[in-house]
Structures are given as C-alpha cells and as structure tokens.
Amino acid sequence: MAELPEGGGDEGRAEMAADERTLLARLSAAEQTGETVRTVLRTDDRVLARISDGIYRKPGSALRELVANAYDADATTVVLRTDAPMFRELSVRDDGVGMNKETLTRLIHHIGGSAKRTLEGGALGVTDPSNPSLTIRGRRLIGKIGIGLFSVAQLTRHFRIITKRAGDKFRLVADVVLRTYSEDDLATRTQGDSDVVTGDVVIRTIPADDPNAHGTEVILRAIEPPARALLQSAEMWSQVLEPFEGESAVDPPAFHIGKAVDASERSSPAASTRNEFNSDVVPNDMFRIEPRLPWLHSDSPDAKFRKLVDAVRQLFGAKNPRPKISREFDFYLQQMWELSVSLPLDYLDRHPFDEESDTDIRVFRLANSRKGQPSSVRIEPSRTIRQELGLVAPARSHDDVFDVYFDDVLLRRPITFNHLPLADSEDLRKAPLLFVGSYSASLSRMPSHVSGGRSLKLEAYFLWTPKVVPDELKGVCVRIADASGTGFDPGFLGYQVQELNRLNQIIAEVYVLDGLDAALNIDRESFNFGHPHAKILSSWVHSALRQLATTQKRLASEARSSARGVSLDKQDEELNAIVASVTASPAEVVFVEDSDTAVTEHLAGRLALSRSTVFAGLPAGSGSRQQQSRALAEKQLAAIAQVLDSHDMFGSMDYAERENILCVIGRILGVAR
Amino acid sequence: MSEGGAGDSAERDGAADPAGLDGREEVTEYRQPPVDYGAQGSESAHLETAMNAEDADMDEHARSAYGNELADLGADQYVHQKHPGAAPWHHPRKHYCRIRQWCRHAASLIKRLGLNRPVQGRALRYLSLPGDELLDIRTLVGVCQRSNVGLRFLGFNTAHSGERKLESDISFSEVIGIEGIQKEASLVVAERLERISVRSSKAHRTLQEHAPFDVVNLDLCDSIFGNRPGDTESPFQALRQIVDIQAARNHGPWLLFVTTRIGRDVANMHTVKGLMSLVASNAEDDTFCRAFEERYNLDCSTAANSEEGIESATDEVFKKLVSIGFAKWLMQVARPKGANPAIVEVLDCFTYRVHGSEPDMYSLSFHIAPSVSATTDATGITADIESEHVPSEFSMAAKALEALSQATDVDELLGRDISLFDRTARQATDVLCSARHSRSLCESEFGRIRTRYDQIWGGGSES
Questions:
Q1: B258-291: pLDDT as tens digits
Q2: CA B320 to CA B404: how far, in whole Å?
Q3: How far is B165 from chain A (nearest CA, A)?
Q4: Which residue, B446, A238, A443, is CA-closest to B438?
Q5: Which of A76, A437, A612, B178 fits a 20 to 30 Å CA distance from A352?
Q6: Which residues from chain B sit within 8 angstroms of residue A291, using beta carbons?
Q7: ipTM of the complex
Q8: Which of A154, A201, A204 to mutate to test the interface with B (most CBs of B within 10 A)?
Q9: Is A478 helix (H, G, I), strand (E, B) or coil?
C-alpha cells in the first residue's frame, strides 16, 4: 500500500497542488497495478477566507467575541461603549496584557491560526508557558483558533486596534478594512493559491511615555447600515410608529434605549435645528423616542444591572404571565442580557453552588449511571452546596476579577435563587428542587483522533421551579471556560421525551471543566453533535433530566396527596360547623353500597343513602383524586340532609322520597345522578 | 471650539499676532508634512478611492446594505514627532493657566469637599472640552493622584474622522490608563457641546447621565459672547444648560472655568448689551459704584447704561465690563427656581494675547456654592429658623469686580519672570511629551517663545 506524506501547516499548503498531482499519478498507476492508495483528507484555504469574512450569525456575537478575547488576555476590566441609539461607533477596551509586534503580526497574518492553545502561545507570552490552554493568569482560554476578532464583520468592515504591552515603549495602532468575501474570482484562482487576502491593514507604531500601561482597545468604526438598523431595533420601531397599511401597530417594548431620529425624519423642518452656529452639521444625534430604562442616571453600575433583572421579574404577574426578553427589551437591552448570560461573569448574588444550607431549596445529587436515581443531599448548617459536594466550577480563583461594563452598566450573570418560591410555602408542590451533579468521562484509553479529546469533565445543576422568568432562561446553558455562545437551549440538547411543561420549568447550567471544546462549532454558537464529546454530554444531560422528572413527579404526587388529605379534613370540619350552627343534635346520615343495606340502617333510625342510587352511572374512579371528590360529595349531601331534617323539612316523606330529594339536590350541585 | 476642536478656528487660523506670542510666526502648518508609508500608505489610498461608492448606481436595497460612509483607513499622515507650540494650547502660558488656575483651585475644592478623606472615596467629577490631546486631563490627574482621589471625566470633542480621530483615539487610550482615572466611567463623546442645549439630543442625555460635576471647564478658543441672544446652540446656551443641571441636582460647591476671547470684534453687541444691563442694575449700589469708579475711573451707570457708554469705553474697559457682566449673569442664573441664589465668587482671572498686542483671552474661574433655603411654617406654630447667610448680589458683584480688576496678565508675568517661564515650560514639555511631542522640538520651540518674551519684557536680563 502506498502512503503519501501527511504534511501540514504552511509547507503542506504550499505543496498541496504538487500533492494532488502525485495522488493523481499514483491513482493512474494503481489502475494498472491494483495497488491501494492511502492519503489524508485536506481542507482548502478558501474555507478560512470564508470564515474570516464572518461565520457569525448575530451582531451580538461580535461584542461577545471581543469581550472573550479580553478575558483570554487576562483583562480584569472591560469597558464596552456605544453611542446608542445612533450606533455609529462601538468600542471594546480592556486592561489585558495587550499585543506586541509579534502577537499583532501573528493575528494579522494568521487568521484562524491563533497561537492560543499551542506551545507557540507560551513562547509569544500570550498563554501559560507550561499549559497552552490556560492564560498566564490561569484562566482556561475561551478562544481557540483566533477568528473571534473577525466577528466584527457582522457590524463593520473597518475597525481600529490600539494595543500596548507593559514595558513596551510604543503603542501599536492597526486600522483594518476587511474585504467582503466574494466568489466572483473563484474561476480565475489557481489551485494551490494559499495566501488568501481578506483585508487591508495599516499599522502605526506610536511612541509611548507610559511604560506600565497595557491593554487593547478595538474601535468598530462606521457601523454598516444593516447592522445599525438592527442595533437600533429599527424594524420594531417601524412597527410601533409606522406600521404598513394593513398591519396593526405594536406596543413598544417595556424597556428600551430610545430611538434616534433617522435620516428621513431629519429632513423635516421640525427635526432640523440648523442655525448659524452649526450650519455645517445636520443633527443626527436626536432622540425621537426617549429611552425607557429601569434604572436612574444616578444609580451605580451594579445597581443598574440589578434593576434590569428586577424589572424582568416584576413584569411577570404585573401584566404578563410569560415575560420574554425578546419582547420586553429592545435589541440593545437584549444584547446586554445575552452578554450577561454568555460571558464568564460573576453571578448577580452568588454562584448556584455557593448557596448555603439556609436556602429552602431541596438539593439532590444526580447519579451518573443511566438508570441511577438522585440522592437527597443534606447541607449542613452554614455550609454551601459546593463544600458539601466538593464542586469546583467555575474553577477560577476568587481574586480573579473580570468586570464588564456595558455603557455604565456592570454586567452580572442574571441568575439568582433569591426570589424562588419557598419550600415551606403552603403548597409543597411549588417548592423548588435543585439537582446537582459532577461527571467525568474516562476516555484516556481511546486514541485522541477517535475520542475527540482524552477527557470530558463537567459539573452541573438543574433547578426545577414552577415558573422560570424570563423565558430566555429556560433550558440548559453549556459553559466552556465559563463562557457560552450557545445560551440557554430550551430543547435540552435534543431531549426527545414529551415533557414540555416540565422542561419549561427548568434552568440548568453545565460547567465543562475539561474537554468538549472540540465539539463546539467555530462560531461557538452551536455544537457539532457528531462529535463524541457532544454525544456524551447530551446523554448525561438527558439522564439528569430523567432523574429530575421522576423525582419531581414523585414528590409532587406525595405533596398532592398530603395536600388533599389536609384539605378534606378542613372541609369536613367546616361542614360540621355549619350543621352545628343549625342543630345541636344532627340526624345520623350514612352512605351505604346498596338498597338492602340501607334498609338495615333505616331500621336503626339512620338516614341511609344508597351510593348505587345517588351516584348511579357516575364512575367512582380508582384514582385517589376521584375518591376524594366522591367522599366530599357524600359529606356535603349528608350535611344538607341534616340541615333539612333539623328544620323538619322532610315532613312525612319516606326514606325513598328523602333519598330522591337529596339526589335532586346532588344533581343541582353536580355531584349526584 | 475646544483645544484642537473643529470650531476652534479663532486661535488656529487667527489673523495677525503682532507680539508673536503664540509662537507660530514661522509655522504655518499644524502638523509636519505627511510621512511616506510606502506600500501600506499607497494601498490604503487606493482602497479609499476604490471604495468611494457615493456615485455608484445603486437602488435603495443596495444602498441600505452598503450605506454612504465607506471605510477609510484613517489618517495616513500621522506623524510621530508632533510640533509643539504650533497650537495655542501647547504654549507654556496655557500650561500656566492649567496649573495655577485649574489645578490649584481643583486641589482646594478636593480638600473642601473632603474627597481626599478615605471615607469619602468619591472621585472628582470633571466636565471639559479636552481637545484631541486631552492635555487638561493629563494635567489635572496629577492633582488627583497627589490627593489620592480618583478622576472621572466627561469630555466633548468633535473628532469624527481622519487624523484628528486617530489622535483623539490614541490620546484617550493613553489617558484612560493613567492611574487614578476612573476608566470604566470616563469618556470623551464625539459630540458638540452646544448640542446639550437640545433636550432631545444624545449630548443632552449624556450630560444628564454624568451630572453633577465638581469641576466644569469650558476651554473655548472662540468667544462665548459671539452669538446672538436666544441662539439655541451656542456655547453660552450650553453653559446655561450646565448651570441649570448643576442647580437642579442640588450639588455641593463646584468650580467653573471659562476660557474665552473678549473683544469688540468677537462679541455680539446684543449679547453685550444684555450683560451691560446687569452691570447697570448695580448702579444704585454705592459699594459697587465706588469700587467701579476706583478701579476703572468711570461712572458705572454711564459706562454700562447707554450705548454710547459702551461704545466710548476703551477696549480695556469694554473687556472689564463684559467680564463683570458675565459674572453677574452667572449670579443671576445659578439659582434654582424659588431657591436662594447660589453664592458665586470669582476666584481669579488670567489673561493673555492671541490677537493683537493687548490681552484678549480671558481664563476665568468661579466658585459656585448653592445656598440652602430655610423651611417656612405658615401656621406660625414654630418660630422661623435663621437662614444661612447669603451675601447680597451687590456685595457678590463688588467682590467679583475686585477679583476681575486684579487679572493676571500671564504673558507679562512669564515675560518678567523668566525663571517662572522656564519652570512652566519644563512642565508644559512634560505634559506634551506624554502626548507624544518631541522633547527637543518642545525645547527649541519654547526657547523661541522665551526669546520673544525676553525681548518684550526683559525678564531674562532682570533674572
């Protein structure tokens, strides 16, 4: 069997055409000799050109990716600024390690060939020298192939990078203009063209007087009209303000950043305030609709975000049984929300694993075997779930600060257990249940190109609560390196069981501690379910869901029975009290199975009602629920009989007539035949 | 209107400067000639041309996809070695104002507000027109660092594109990294300050979001008095808006710095008349009138009350009248409706020459303290509470007159005390170097200015 060299990297690419010729020659030869030809699959560079042009689907991805880059650069503070509601320019600035000439060169000439995750990263000083999958600070890297920066193509083709490393006596300023990917020239390209030009760059080296300064700023300039329209929620506003003929106007969202006067409106004399002083500038900075935000100017950045989250919760019940971020927020606030969900941020109050014993949530530990059952966990006083179960996620040190400010709002992960219904409330069925698990797949014995990575480790929680608000938190959010581009997946990674109602009551987060990265598609917004790690993950998640469902069903059923017992006793008491208020010595009324037994009771001076007569044709039902309602009906009819009897209303009626009257009353009440 | 701002034509393109004190006599270009960037530069130029799709024949669907603002690769002419002294805001005398006026008063305010006490922990809130190079912020942050106080700034600067945008981006990147700057809350917006007067504008909203301020610095290159009364978007109207917001937020004492040209050629006479009527209203007050006559050797009511008076006033008196009128205007407006007037105090006044041989640029500083109105009890059940003592407007005006009449001619001061000039020039060099100016170019440029000063005032020979 003939083998061709595997070749890789740049040399491999350059020789691709030659390789192809050789392969062709060998195949021709094999036609004669019958020899088997062995080779490897290769990927064309055009794929990369396509990728750097933008494989991202949403403009929000750009912001997420830029902040993720800041995280990977060990930044502690990221400031994201917009000129909302105009959105002419956006910037993302961090205090991370910054780039020097080598790293900037690498970035510009190796799109998709990031030094991150490779030993080269350590040599370039962008990653931990001993572990290229960690940052120097010890964070697990979010990015991997170095295309995140090019997600900006969703917003603009022109961006500026200003970057500096501590110790450098210069800043690097790079202006990049991306070329739009076109397939027009494919026909003229020759095979083996390896250098795919995807943009033009001007780099300036600017002397710096501040040796200690470090960080990177990416300024997205001249945001393109379609992206601006999206950021401005233009379509929504047009439906609110100027619906097309035949369309009915929609309400504006509950909260929004306002609407700018747009170009067509600016030409009206009312909107134009041109005068002598600013005759050269046509105002393009006016609000047509003033912002409606849940916070005050004077609130701290932290308070602003809390108020945003509170506002969502308060929308529930006030007017809307099912508040959705996508309806209650404009696109801008939706982006703020999505970023807060997807970035590796601190939680609003605390990490779910740091909940203490005094929460009224019942905690269960998930079994890892497919048929396993969860076990109830008792959290000792003043201990946390993390301590009790030995959990480590998100596996960052406590002093590792990562704060993201979005136009003066400090983002936090908008998930809190502080407002869940309490376990000691009257209805135990509403008590939230928390299922926590940790799992490690042992794949070390499998070769890497089969296993897709030697290890898959994760920790997770599944919170069941009667009402998840807002809708966007329903589902499972898978976090790799504590970040998630996929958000909450309400389909739970393709869970097939028809549990719609219950699935709508679950917030779940999976913290992947090792592995799975390779199963994440490169836009990091979806998984490749063909990858073994994704398969293992979804299998584990589905098993967890089954455990949750079984346990929740069982507990709800128990709670229901006990609730019904309590309520029947209570109603019995009330009926007795009513009868007692009418007569001190009520007649004895009993229900018997048939007329024969009734006669015996009548002889003993008791008013006996035959079930077979009173409830004739009505199914008795075998369920406890039906039985309970039958028992209640009997008690009600007995009480009516006692009241009628105490006022001598039955007069001279015989037992059959009395039974008949009570049947009629029972029918009116809808309990008898 | 700000340092390096779009509207700042007055200082940059100004006419004759007989004294040659702005150091520009041999310099006509603000920047050095373009640097050849070789292949990169020409490629980008080619790109810009290629991307000029303005005239392209596109329908509305296509236009909505591309828009009109196609990317340019920015200023290719950016130079490493910027030329100092070419702009008035690089001049040592300007730096003298920064240090001796802005920084000195800010330091006192920090102490008065107790911001330097550990428990306070609040940053100094600063509003300014920082220009492209943010020289005021680079200077002021030193005061904050020494007092261990953070600095949170909001700047208005209209650098939208090209070289100015590049300079502005780089400067911002430098300044935001300086220790003590509140990096998450500080920003420069690419808006004209004048837009704050339009209620529905983004600029107005930004101001509202960041107000109140401890220090407001309107460092104009033009005259604040150049617009007609009632102009909705003038620097004067913007100041009114700021004073209004400050009053509405019932903030503590704050500082206002206004740098403006004053002169007949740059002032709108209707606006001047309005200010004069305020001065004339003090004519009945003996204290004020006496002070006025002493200082200016003029009858206050005659000078301010009639058109002839204003017209016949010497240029010097005209400038004094306008500045006192301006102080009185502040006293008028710095009071919320129904509340006691704020106590407005002129701290000092620095002047220098931009056009002509007499000082025409005024750097004014004010301390504005809202006064608290006592509660009232109409029922008479409780006795009236003694109100905080608020000096009468007359006495505030008399004090203002006093302070304004002692204006410091900074050109003369530095010219007569060359060692002070040298010290200031060194400090100016340091701050300019932080903004990437060449030290040697600064030194040679300032050396030329030193010689001019020495020729006129002879401070060098005295020292």
A1: 999 999 999 999 999 899 888 888 877 888 888 8
A2: 7
A3: 11
A4: B446
A5: A76
A6: 205
A7: 0.83
A8: A204
A9: strand
